[in-house]
Amino acid sequence: GENVEQHPSTLSVQEGDSAVIKCTYSDSASNYFPWYKQELGKRPQLIIDIRSNVGEKKDQRIAVTLNKTAKHFSLHITETQPEDSAVYFCAAKGNTGGFKTIFGAGTRLFVKA
Amino acid sequence: NAGVTQTPKFRILKIGQSMTLQCTQDMNHNYMYWYRQDPGMGLKLIYYSVGAGITDKGEVPNGYNVSRSTTEDFPLRLELAAPSQTSVYFCASSYSSSGANVLTFGAGSRLTVL
Fold first, then answer.
1. Which residues of A touch B108 (CB under 8 A)?
2. Which of A2, B33, B90, B104 makes an SS bond possible with A102, Cβ 3.0 to 4.6 Å?
């Protein structure tokens, strides 16, 4: 089945710097790659996603890139702000076997003011 | 719309007890999921359902059971609770397709087994 690995597990940046979180997936049939943000004590919420037929997608300060050949995808946050502090999860959804969404282990991002 | 509603929010169980976590959604989503999140960890898929009457195992199904008699409801049953089942449980739903699959999560149910 699908396996998603995420790095780093913890990331600390200064306000205004950029943050990059990287993920790899194992199932070449996966075709949808969402990113979720989870604030402390809250439920995960989608912040951006990318489909397998697209290499890059941007939404204001966040962007996601996908390298299908290498089975890598990354989240980029520019001009970080303290309210970006949260846990970020990458995920991959397969195109067969019930379309399951499998999550990475998460990255705890700290943005220092 | 209420979205995805989970009950209870908190529960303490003794080892060996059983209980059911309730999940209901009012968005007419066909797919529903149960994930568990251990402290400081990621989301692990327990069971999922592609529609009423159809369920399948996820990554960590042992010790749990589910049923899906209606589109709206997807209860998770814990039989013979063990300390290893102490976790936060999230129910989620989506319109699934061969393309995008945005999950809407419930607020979570925090379970402690002592």
1. 43
2. A2
Cβ distance A103 to B33 less than 8 Å, yes or no, reads no
* Burial of A6 from C-beta contacts in 10 A (0-12 / 13-18 / 19+): buried
CA torsion, ordered B27, B30, B31, B34, to nearest 10 deg:
60
Predicted confidence band at B83 (pLDDT cuts at 50, 70, 90)?
A: very high
Measure the CA angle with vertex A94, ends A88 and A95; round to 5°.
145
Q: How far apart are the first and last CA of chain A?
A: 41
A26 in contact with B at a CB cutoff of 8 Å?
no
Please, which pLDDT band fits residue A92 given cuts at 50, 70 and 90? very high
DSSP string, chain A: ---EEEE-SEEEEETTS-EEEEEEES-TT--EEEEEEE-TTS--EEEEEEETT-SEEEETTEEEEEETTTTEEEEEE-S--GGG-EEEEEEEE-SSTT--EEE---EEEEEE-
Q: Are A25 and A73 contacting, i.e. CB atoms less than 8 angstroms apart?
A: yes
Chain A: residue whose CA lies nearest to B60:
A102
A81, pLDDT greater than 70? yes
